[in-house]
Amino acid sequence: MNTVLIIDDDKELCALIKHSVLSENIEADCCNTGKEGLMKLKEKDYQLVILDVMMPGMDGFETLEEIRKESSLPILMFTSKNDSVSKVRGLRAGADDYLTKPFDMDELIARIISLIRRYTRFNQSEGTPQQLDFDGLRIDIDNRTIITVNGTFELPPKEFDVLLFLVKYQGKILTKQKIYEEVWGEEYCYDDSNIMAIISRLRKKLEENPGHPKYIQTIKGIGYRFNKEV
Q1: pLDDT value of residue 161
Q2: Helix axis angle, 60-70 relative to 34-43, nearest 10°?
Q3: Is the pTM for the entire model greater than 0.85?
Q4: Are the CB atoms for 205 and 223 separated by under 8 Å?
Q5: Under CATH, what is the fold of the domain 2-121?
């Protein structure tokens, strides 16, 4: 059974989410502080972390940064309504998705299932490991890692999914809408912050010079393309 860790100081909300995900055969543990959540992550294996931005003491951003030092687990963040600054900051820091409060429980469960499915799919080794080699870049599909001039990186789920989707259509221009609907699995909402933040994080790991990318090219006003020449 998959297990998620909820880190939120709203105890009633934690209990509600814990009860709701059980219907999908998903267990949940609840923590009410960032420090408590970090301790839980060291004690047990989880498939997803749900993290609130606004918490006393160590807030969601600090907790996110600490988690990302040790783990590539998918992280879904809760933000306040119309708080675009928090959304972008969280995505840039390594969050895979976000949901604004108040939210619909069915939507939350759909996001949880989607994130867990992608994470577990890319963590299941079947047969010989698959590797894709480009000029100065190796992608290990089974282990969700990349080897570049900047080092070896284990990519968080959304970053890996975006990269793999671009690679699959190497040389083809992909619109932001196409990328979003394929990777996030939902209707495009004309909010490019998710995609832009992930592309930015990928370039810092992939590129020798992120300002002049070799692999992921920006097609102004349209979207992105994985360079067909590499």
Answers
A1: 93
A2: 20
A3: no
A4: no
A5: Rossmann fold (3.40.50)
